């Protein structure tokens, strides 16, 4: 009676148990000389369950590829002392442990991404490029390539230190002057250079500040497609993000024009803006809707400050390159009007917006499930609040509270991957087979509540 995926998982977990070792209190003493990739999980955590089959695949593939990385998982609730020593704060937490060093994995939880991370981080912090041929080969393979060029030097030591820390983000290479391709001419040797955007840029201690700051700011292409996850990663560079919000599936002339405007600025004004801005385009406004709360049209141009959740919109139409450059300059010199922000009012507004978006999307995709998830609790609570709220003619405040409670339950840490997680969360109750029988009976009862739920949804729509 098992559905095929469940059967596969079942087979997998019995056949390849050894590829993922269940760790216990002895781990701290026995792990010493090995490199470990560990998932810290909680038995009740839905995302952990979702990760489980992926985790076995990761274990199996690393083992079969002959990787020295050992894969394990640890019940962080059972061994909470040890987990907190490793700095585990949410579930699941994925860490690569290498001697004294612990590297956090924050990327998408797919097999390929996790394996790429394990291979990159478990290897040497700086990889040597022994020949020009190898150098050129890597230039083709990596869209952003950091290379130290030269012999032993204090700069090289610094480079190795920084690489040891930032290997979680990208690869680091080194080459001797002889291996340098002819297409590159460096003003001095030794140098640290980044090859990207069909060009290359060298690190200048006086202009660029510390090497790690510079690497952090240069580790993305100057212009790139942005999704929710990239946006979060870009934010970590401390730069503002200038985005053409367009419709990729049905690009109008305006979409194409705005996208190419941003692309041109990214390339031609790199000198001017690269230090403070990252450029790109985004398909639709879904990823940033909780940021801008539906207040940005598609297509349009928006600049986001992910550190304080402010955003900037051009005053008028961006008809020319000059308009756009003027707008960006205005943001830079502080004369442009900032919207949003992380003040308390904005935060409540955002929470309400997110909650409403979540509820609406559930109702849209599955009204019955929507009622089951939200209708019942909302119904009960709103009955309780009914007397108070209606009398005061302040329905907004009451609803805000409700929504806050809903979203507060989500782990703060998970916010960054909100979209994905929300989807995952919603799958939860459906996927649990035990409850299916009961659920069906209850669904009938819930049908009555449905009316109420929809009213609620309609009300929420009005609150903008
Ligand atoms: C972006 O936010 C940070 C953190 O609050 C702030 O220091 C910075 O000035 C902001 N940048 C702009 C251009 O508003
Ligand atoms: C800021 O930049 C804008 C656009 O370039 C310019 O019009 C404005 O005069 C500048 N303001 C200040 C205070 O420098």
TrEMBL record:
EC number(s) from the headed UniProt entry: 5.3.4.1
Top EC class, one word: isomerase
Places the protein is found: Endoplasmic reticulum membrane
PROSITE patterns per UniProt: THIOREDOXIN_1, THIOREDOXIN_2
Annotated function: Probable disulfide isomerase, which participates in the folding of proteins containing disulfide bonds. May act as a dithiol oxidase. Acts as a regulator of endoplasmic reticulum-mitochondria contact sites via its ability to regulate redox signals.
Transferase as UniProt keyword: no
InterPro entries, per database record: PDI_TMX3, Thioredoxin-like_sf, Thioredoxin_CS, Thioredoxin_domain
Membrane topology: Single-pass membrane protein
Reaction(s) catalysed (UniProt annotation): Catalyzes the rearrangement of -S-S- bonds in proteins
Protein name: protein disulfide-isomerase
Species in which this protein is naturally found: Muraenolepis orangiensis (Patagonian moray cod)
Alphabetically ordered keywords of this record: Membrane, Signal, Transmembrane, Transmembrane helix
Domain of life: Eukaryota
Signal peptide: 1-18
Disordered: annotated segments: 397-464
GO cellular component labels: cell surface; endoplasmic reticulum membrane
Broad class of the protein's primary localization: endoplasmic reticulum
MF annotations from Gene Ontology: protein disulfide isomerase activity
Compositionally biased tracts (Basic and acidic residues): 454-464
């Amino acid at each position: 009676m098992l559905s095929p995926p469940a059967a596969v998982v079942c087979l997998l977990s019995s056949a390849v148990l050894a590829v993922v070792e269940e760790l216990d209190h002895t781990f701290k003493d026995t792990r010493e000389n090995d490199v470990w990739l560990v998932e810290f999980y909680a038995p009740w955590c839905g995302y952990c369950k979702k990760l489980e089959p992926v985790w076995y695949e990761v274990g199996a593939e690393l083992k079969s590829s002959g990787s020295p990385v050992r894969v394990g998982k640890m019940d962080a609730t059972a061994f909470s002392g040890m987990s907190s020593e490793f700095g585990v704060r949410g579930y699941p937490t994925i860490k690569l442990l290498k001697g004294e060093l612990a590297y956090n994995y924050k990327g998408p939880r797919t097999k390929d991404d996790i394996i790429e991370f394990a291979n990159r981080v478990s290897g040497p912090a700086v990889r040597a490029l022994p020949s020009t041929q190898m150098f050129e080969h890597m230039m083709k393979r990596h869209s952003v390539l950091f290379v130290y060029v030269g012999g032993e030097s204090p700069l090289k030591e610094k480079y190795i230190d920084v690489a040891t820390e930032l290997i979680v983000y990208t690869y680091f290479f080194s080459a001797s002057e002889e291996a340098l391709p002819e297409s590159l001419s460096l003003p001095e040797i030794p140098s640290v250079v980044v090859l990207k955007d069909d060009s290359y840029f060298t690190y200048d201690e006086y202009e660029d500040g510390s090497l790690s700051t510079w690497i952090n700011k240069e580790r993305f292409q100057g212009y790139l497609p942005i999704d929710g996850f990239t946006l979060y990663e870009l934010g970590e560079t401390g730069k503002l993000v200038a985005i053409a919000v367009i419709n990729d599936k049905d690009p109008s002339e305006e979409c194409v024009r705005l996208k190419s405007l941003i692309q041109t600025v990214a390339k031609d004004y790199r000198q001017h803006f690269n230090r403070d801005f990252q450029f790109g385009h985004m398909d639709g406004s879904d990823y940033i809707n909780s940021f801008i709360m539906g207040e940005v049209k598609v297509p349009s141009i928006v600049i986001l400050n992910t550190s304080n959740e402010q955003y900037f919109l051009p005053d008028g139409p961006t008809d020319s390159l000059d308009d756009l450059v003027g707008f960006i300059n205005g943001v830079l010199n502080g004369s442009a009007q900032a919207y949003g922000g992380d003040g308390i009012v904005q935060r409540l507004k955002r929470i309400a917006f997110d909650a409403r978006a979540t509820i609406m999307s559930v109702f849209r995709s599955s009204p019955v499930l929507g009622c089951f998830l939200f209708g019942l609790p909302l119904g009960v609570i709103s009955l309780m609040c009914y007397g108070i709220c209606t009398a005061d003619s302040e329905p907004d405040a009451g609803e805000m509270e409700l929504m806050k409670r809903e979203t507060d339950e989500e782990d703060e840490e998970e916010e960054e991957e909100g979209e994905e997680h929300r989807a995952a969360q919603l799958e939860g109750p459906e996927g649990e087979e035990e409850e299916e029988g009961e659920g069906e009976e209850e669904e009938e009862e819930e049908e009555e509540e449905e009316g109420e739920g929809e009213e609620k949804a309609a009300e929420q729509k009005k609150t903008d």
